[in-house]
Amino acid sequence: MPSLKVADLSIDYSKEVIPRIRSSRSLRVMDDALVLLRFNDERSYIDFWRTRLVPTTGPNTNSTALPSAPKGVYPEYICKTFEVTTDGIVDFKLEEEGKTTRDLIRIRSMRNVHFDREWHELKIGENFEVTLEK
């Protein structure tokens, strides 16, 4: 049975996951990248994040990760620590007014590239395909 302790997970990650990621292009989407905090102390998790997860993304690895840290679930300082280790922060928001909803996205920060900070609407199609409204 896999361990949820980052000390054990770190060994498995180094042996199994990192070589796989480095040998192919990948996109990893994590709906809650901080969930392991439930089973580990904060310092151990942050060390695991910085030494194992962050180095496996970026141009040198042909890999992109889209981790998330849901607001209001974890302490603010943990989320801030998490944010400073990433290359960019993308915000999503749902606006509801009566029966009308709007799904919005913006880039809050991004290292080494020029970007637009405005909120943009996302349209979700019948087949769940997402497009950016211009």
End-to-end CA span: 47 Å
Can you count the beta strands? Answer: 6
Count of helical segments? Answer: 3
Query: What is the chain-wise order of helices and strands?
Result: HEHEHEEEE
* Uncertain residue segments: none
- Proportion in helices: 25-40%
Task: Estimate the strand proportion.
Answer: 25-35%
**What topology, given as strand order, has the largest sheet?**
3-4-5-6
Multimeric state: single chain
What's the number of structural domains? 2
SSE class: alpha+beta
Main pleated-sheet profile: 4 strands, antiparallel
Global outline: globular
How would you describe this protein?
With 134 residues, this protein is an alpha+beta fold. The protein has two domains: 1-86, no CATH class; 88-134, no CATH class. Helix content is 28%, strand content 29%. The chain contains three helices and six strands; from the N terminus they run αβαβαββββ. It has helices at 6-22, 42-53, 76-84; strands at 26-30, 63-67, 88-97, 100-110, 120-124, 130-132. The strands form two sheets. Strands 3-4-5-6 form a four-stranded antiparallel sheet, with no helix packed on it. A hairpin with a 2-residue loop joins β3 and β4 (100-110). The chain is globular. The termini are far apart.
